UniProtKB/TrEMBL annotation:
SUPFAM superfamilies: Acyl-CoA N-acyltransferases (Nat) (SSF55729). It comes from the Bacteria. Pfam families: Acetyltransf_3. This is GNAT family N-acetyltransferase. InterPro entries: Acyl_CoA_acyltransferase (IPR016181), GNAT_dom (IPR000182). Coiled coil: none annotated. Residues 2-153 form the N-acetyltransferase domain. It comes from Arthrobacter hankyongi.
Length: 155
């Protein structure tokens, strides 16, 4: 069973652990320059958790913390981000979490950005009703290269 709940302090240890996976970082593309720097991680998460305009949820699968869903505002539009532990990829966890989150977070339009070759994430967003509206270029620390991102939107 997939559930969303408010972030608890102990969840951050799991989020940090999941951030250490090089494959997950590569798929996300946009990660910390040094994902193993706990100080940078903690600073980033405290900023999210202390910002009243940000909505953050922990994702659990059968009671186990397996990821998170975050919405923050970028250029005046809410932007969806999520991270799921690699051990739970391909099991429908992220699809279920995104769909649950979008029932709770009803502000529209909402956007998401995904590295163009992250087909699994694009598929998740399209299942939730997002449509491609553009592309952007950005430097991805995890790949040490400029990548193309798909910009998707749910109206």
């Amino acid at each position: 069973m997939i559930e969303l709940r408010p972030v608890e302090p102990a969840d951050l240890d799991k989020f940090f652990e999941y951030q250490q996976d090089p494959d997950a970082n590569r798929m996300a593309g946009f990660s910390a320059k040094n994902p193993s720097d706990r100080g940078v991680f903690d600073h980033y998460w405290q900023g999210l958790l202390n910002d009243s305009s940000v909505t953050v949820r922990t994702v659990t699968a059968d009671g186990e913390v397996v990821g998170n869903v975050v919405v923050y505002h970028s250029e005046g539009v809410p932007e969806l981000n999520y991270w799921t532990a690699k051990s739970h990829w391909g099991r429908g966890v992220t699809t279920a979490a995104v769909e649950q989150f979008l029932r709770e977070f009803t502000e529209r339009p909402i956007r998401a950005r995904v590295v163009k070759d992250n087909l699994g994430s694009i598929k998740i967003l399209e299942k939730a009703g997002f449509r491609r509206i553009g592309e952007a270029q950005g430097f991805a620390n995890a790949r040490a290269a400029v990548v193309t991102e798909e910009i998707l939107e749910l109206s």
